[in-house]
Amino acid sequence: MQIGTAVCGQGERQKGYLKVAELAFGCDVRLPVIIVRGVEDGPTLWVNGGVHGEEVSGIFAIQKLVNSIDPQELKGTLVVTPVSNPLAIKGIQKFTPEDQLDMNQQFPGREKGWLSEQMAYYLFKEVKTYADYLVDLHGLGVSYDSVPYTVYKNMAGVPDKINKKTEELTLLMGVKANCRVDLATAKGEFPGAIAGAIDAQCLLNGIPAFMFELGGKVDWQIIDFAVGSIRNMMTHLGMICSDVKRATGQIIITERDFVNSSHAGLTIPEIESGKIIPANTTLNKIVNFIGEELETLSLPVDAYILGIRTNPVVNSGEILVGVGTKWDQVN
């Protein structure tokens, strides 16, 4: 197997780089790639991270995951790209600084497109070639307190068996909250081309894939939990030997929303992530710099709190709370 400069035979672990773009001052934009191939044949799992520059927990999780896998005991192949947008990482921001595009809305990319589209194109070209399954690691960023949760998409044109396999693998992550986003009916989602996400494009190409959100700021307990979750999935896929763990008390969130501020100032959170709160509970208050209350936020329905902003300085239009508003108990 060869991805960029990484060339890996069976029973080996190899590292290299995949060139995805060029910058004006003569520097190549390269993505780090690590391949671990087992001595026996099996599926190929691709774990991606770092598509958004302020979400770094996935990078650490990928590093720990790779170091935990012995190629002599692996069936199949683990491919990881811990930093899929190094320009956003450099800028410590969600978007690619050079073109201000969200790379995770540009897949499958364009070979002759904008910079972020070109980066997406060359990465996804390899994913389509090799991946049987994909996990895309994210986080809400350092401005939020959040519990780990998953997001998987239902899309027109995707066979039922792919959607069912995706949900099955998603639940193996063992988190309580699992968001199922139906792109045909989804309301309250992030603006932009959600179907341009790498996991969505994988689904359209017959590759079960989902997003795994690893909290807000870097939390080493969540990182270790994520490593164990992905290893649990690899056990289920027959890639490593262990006992498959199945969580209880999980929910599938069928509708979610993001509550935005109408005023600027300082936000004061009134609730905690990971809790179910009744309708009309105060979520946040916003005060100005002399302490006058400008806004109190609440929802007219019961809600599961996925994450809440803890960085107090906000403009109008900032996301303050991410919530699930409808859900089903699954186990």
Radius of gyration: 20 Å
Helix content: 10-25%
- What is the CATH architecture descriptor of the largest domain? 3-Layer(aba) Sandwich
Helix vs. strand class: alpha+beta
Proportion of strand residues = 25-35%
- Are there runs of 5+ residues with pLDDT below 50, and where? none
What is the CATH superfamily label of the largest domain?
A: Zn peptidases
Whole-number total of structural domains: 2
Helix and strand run: EEEEEHEHHEEEHEHEHEEEEEEEE
> What is the end-to-end distance?
39 Å
Which quaternary structure do these chains form? Answer: single chain
Total number of β-strand segments? 19
Tell me what you see in this structure.
The chain is of the alpha+beta class and 331 residues long. The chain folds into two domains: 2-236, Zn peptidases (Aminopeptidase, 3-Layer(aba) Sandwich), CATH 3.40.630.10; 254-329, OB fold (Dihydrolipoamide Acetyltransferase, E2P). 21% of the residues lie in helices and 34% in strands. The protein has six helices and 19 strands. It has helices at 57-67, 86-91, 115-130, 160-171, 198-204, 220-236, and strands at 2-3, 6-7, 13-22, 28-37, 40-48, 75-81, 133-138, 144-146, 149-154, 177-182, 209-213, 251-260, 265-269, 276-277, 284-287, 293-297, 303-309, 313-314, 319-329. The strands form three sheets. Strands 3, 4, 5, 6, 7, 8, 9, 10, 11, 12, 14, 17 and 19 form a 13-stranded mixed β-sheet that branches. Strands 16-15-13-18 form a four-stranded antiparallel β-sheet, with no helix packed on it. Strand 15 and strand 16 (293-297) form a beta hairpin.
